[in-house]
Amino acid sequence: MPQQLPGHKYILGLAKQTAEGSAASTAEYKVPVYSADLQNQQSRTTLEIADGTSFSPGQYIDGSMWQGSVEWGAFPSSLPRIMAAHLGASCDTITGAADPWTHTLVRTDTPLWHTVWMGRPTSGGGVEYDQIVDALAKSFIVNYQNGQLVHVTTEFMAKNSNGVATAPTFTTTETMTAAGYGYTWLPAAASQLKLDLAVSPAVTTITNLQSFTLTCDYPNMAMEATNAVTPAFFNPGRWTLGFTATFIVQDWQAYNLTLYGSVTPAANTPLSAVVTSGSADFTLDVGPTANANRTFQITLPNLQFSLQPPTPAVDGSGITATLTGVLQAPAAGAPATFKIKNANSVAVG
């Protein structure tokens, strides 16, 4: 009986390139993934010509690139490498004299090209690789759900790929074992979720978030082809940052802020046209056993918040709501800062 190829046998890894056009030969990390839809994108044009026949002569390929998203497991060692594919060159500043080193990452304007490998299972139990060259992460998404490990998603755009590529050597293989926990939120000293709707920096510790998603994106990023079917020009466009959170409603502060311009409006306050800003600061730990030397801190100093107003429920169920934050450029400093503690003493950017 023929054997169907198994979907869980995919292998994904990545490495920083020394320059655009210089594919890496060694993968820095092999990282477990929750899902992936990386695939070659081809655009084809049908040959339409009057030649006396009843059929089109066929098609030709007029454009080709590699694109898709990968939902990675979030590990202390490899997460900075994945983030650097989005944040850019020289995005990482390291402090510390020994383990743990702290990597402070911010967005930069210079792209940092990466090579991505996707190993596809073969019928003999082996792996056949696509080597994805000159790849950039168009978006970087941090997704936390209550009680789960953090998922990070990157949407890649790449200029080219090599099929049936030489198998890479993986320097570090991440595993979901006792020695390789991923990030989550734990009720430990190192883990803190802080949110203030009208104050910066965030100082109020909260416990009512059920989930949150942080999305960093270049929504208009494009790679354009000119003299070849593969892209020759790159334009990132503007950078955006958005934040959404589902939380258990305990008071009407977020509601009042959205509609009346203050978390504590005076009596008979009319609807406000003023958008106020606040901040968020999330420090996540590795789980299931906490380790203060392996943390992931997300600092968002200037967000404009709004609340999706809750509605009555006749069954008496508790009120939950969705809080949304949108980046407002701060007066000074980075609009988002990511700090990761790990055992790596070398910058990823």
Structure description:
The structure is a single chain. With 349 residues, the chain is mostly beta strands. It has one domain (7-40, 64-342). Helices cover 5% and strands 48% of the residues. The chain has two helices and 21 strands. It has helices spanning 79-87, 253-260; strands spanning 11-16, 26-30, 33-36, 39-47, 58-73, 92-95, 101-105, 114-121, 127-145, 151-165, 169-173, 182-184, 192-196, 209-217, 222-224, 233-235, 240-248, 277-287, 295-307, 320-327, 337-342. It has a 19-stranded mixed sheet that branches. It has a two-stranded antiparallel sheet with strand order 15-16. The protein is globular and about 80 Å long.
List keywords for this structure.
single chain; mainly beta; 349 residues; two-stranded antiparallel sheet
How are the SSEs placed, and which strands pair?
Elements (H helix, E strand, L loop, with lengths): L10 E6 L9 E5 L2 E4 L2 E9 L10 E16 L5 H9 L4 E4 L5 E5 L8 E8 L5 E19 L5 E15 L3 E5 L8 E3 L7 E5 L12 E9 L4 E3 L8 E3 L4 E9 L4 H8 L16 E11 L7 E13 L12 E8 L9 E6 L7
Parallel strand pairs: 2-11
Antiparallel strand pairs: 1-2, 1-8, 3-5, 4-5, 5-10, 6-7, 7-21, 8-9, 9-10, 9-14, 12-18, 13-18, 14-17, 15-16, 17-20, 18-19, 19-20, 19-21
